[in-house]
Design goal:
catalytic activity, Enoyl-CoA_hydra/iso, 43% helix, Enoyl-CoA hydratase/carnithine racemase, 2-enoyl-CoA Hydratase, Chain A, domain 1, alpha/beta, Enoyl-CoA_Hydratase/Isomerase, 2 domains, 244 residues, ClpP/crotonase-like_dom_sf
Length: 244
Amino acid sequence: MSEPVSVRSHAGLLDIVLNTPGNGNLMSAEMGQLIIDAVSNLDEQVRLIRLSGEGEDFCAGRVSPMPKPGSTPTGEALRRNVAMPALALYDALKTAPVPVLSVVHGKAYGVGCALAGVCDITLAADDASFQIPEMERDIPPALVMSALIGRVPMKTIARMVLTRDLVGAREAWQAGLASEVVPRAELRSRADRIAATILECSPVTVRAVKQFMELAPGLPVGTSSSLAGHLSGTALSAKFERPA
């Protein structure tokens, strides 16, 4: 039986593939933990994480973690069993020490939309569609929103959450949810070219860039400038180190 998440590392690239195409790669708690484990235990030579989905869809949503009808869970139990697994997954990708590239085709709904948007670069096929449908079930999608804040304009998030509109790839690009849109037939080759370009750089350079992208937006101007100087100096100094 194949693993629900395929994790392969080669030449500085960590490929994570959602591998339950029969249900649209719905995210389960097990799948989320496998991704967290992979991202949290990177080899020091890894310079890029690439997240994609097998089959016709990137990720059509989440396997429902909600308690069975008739049960009376506490707020703490719901926080622990429903909210925290998803939040931990988003945080792991957002704070990964190297850039994360999502390669999106087909459906990216709910958790799938969050996974696509939380990554540093979102490459979308022209057949990709994005939706945040939780309010159709009267559920506030605060978890998905937390993943997208800082990555996607708030007006885009508000429109998708409140209207539940289905957003196509080109519109997602115009709204800041996708970084680039390519024909479906060219998705893999374009993802490979992006990966090859990033992998040309050293681990220390790539990780410095990711650290600055993560930390600088929330800092005062002077502090972000100091961080830029520190990271640049550290990365450049590695070029002058003599082999032991």
